[in-house]
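--- STAGE predict ---
source: upstream dedup step, 1 unique chain passed
mode: sequence only
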Amino acid sequence: MLFFLCDMTQRQYITFSVSCSNANKVGYSDKQSYPKEECGIVGIYNVEEAANHTYLAAYALQHRGQESSGIVSSDGERLFRYAGMGKVADVFTPQKIKQLVGRHAIAHNRYSTTGASFLRNAQPIRFDSRLGTMALAHNGNLTNAATIRKSLEEQGSIFQTTIDTEVISHLVARSRAANFTDALVEAMRQIRGAYSLVVLTGDTLYALRDPNGFRPLVMGKKDDGFIFASETCALDIIDAEYVRDVEPGEMVSISPQGITSQFPFGKSSQNLCIFEYVYFSRPDSFVFGKSVYNTRMRMGEILAEEAPVIADVVMPVPDSSSVAALGYSRKSGIPYHMGLIRSHYVGRTFIEPDQKIRDFGAKIKYNAIASVVKDQRVVVIDDSIMRGTTTRKIVKMLRGAGAKEIHVRIASAPTRHPCYYGIDIPNHSELIAATHSIDEIVKYLRVDSLAYLSLDGMQRAAAETEGGNKDAGYCTACFDGKYPVNLEEGDANYSNQKTLFSEYEIEESA
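--- STAGE serialize ---
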């Protein structure tokens, strides 16, 4: 149940909820066998109908988080906030957008990498301090958040959420700096880990990226205004022009006095998340200066070079593997077909008949095309394998449709380690590549062969794709366990990714 309160005297919008997960216990709840999306952020400055444009940009970033969505707008003095559980189109109505007045706005789509799934954790978060009112939206994961939070709580701070992002607001509020900009810099200098941030005050928009550059953040221009977003597809939908990436360690601020750029957080080696190319970003986006489509295509081509097989058909597990499968087909000469059809109307919960259907979870999401795979030697291309449960069900489905041979090829290296920088990759013990050999995985999946793209092949694909920094360094910690930013003692469990409704089944707030 969602309640929407409007105090017209202050023009501030307040949300609270009773999040009843009993509905999620009815029937089938798909335990994710793929890495979950992260979060998507948007910031817009000096654009007419800023909230509406922000809504559209957030809609384009829906693939990065479907758990909650929020927008904070500004008329130059006051901030107006609305957030709700669910997808962008479900949370916002035309009436709510009209109440979010002003020419500046920020937005956030959330998937919880830290903190449980309920409304009080929805972003952007908004708070007041002696420096004024501030709202911020964060994509990433702060690896020292638990340490800082414990220290702040011991000093009397009261936290309203369970998300790591709130730590930033407390550090800003406690700063003795003379102005907001200096307080924000002081706060972020205490933060470690992955962050791309948009921060909105009454008349200023800030965009920040951590010194390692883990998460993407692009800058665009529309008329006399500026746009910041996680991916360029958010610029395309509102006819904004891509200008450049916000650089690792950079803070851009835009105010009535103009636009400024500074690098106040020190130097670090670049560690761009290579999984953005593998899975997360939309193929029509440019991320880290490179075409996601072209990079995935090159990954598929190199996979065909490294792991050839004699077969009749190449097919993807749609949708994120479709481009890599096309690259594999093009390089190998094996015809490309869509052997699986994916439903695009899948939610998190389904009502299953009392008479159980075998592999209901897989069938509600995918269906095999018998005319494509029957009596064929099939190469199945997927972007990654986490637990292996979904892949096993897909293989069983293809066998049932008459496939003669099934050869699985993965367009990334074996995922053997969790991520602490904002991606929901399972723990080490749940990752099949971390606990089983290739031969053991082949037996578990019941396939004829299995091969992964090498880590060198992944990096080569990124390097050979036109655009961006040719010498850019990539974070590959989920593949090789080499973490660029260490966790502080006591933070490992806090920074571990949280699954939906893992903390509470019912939450009430007034």
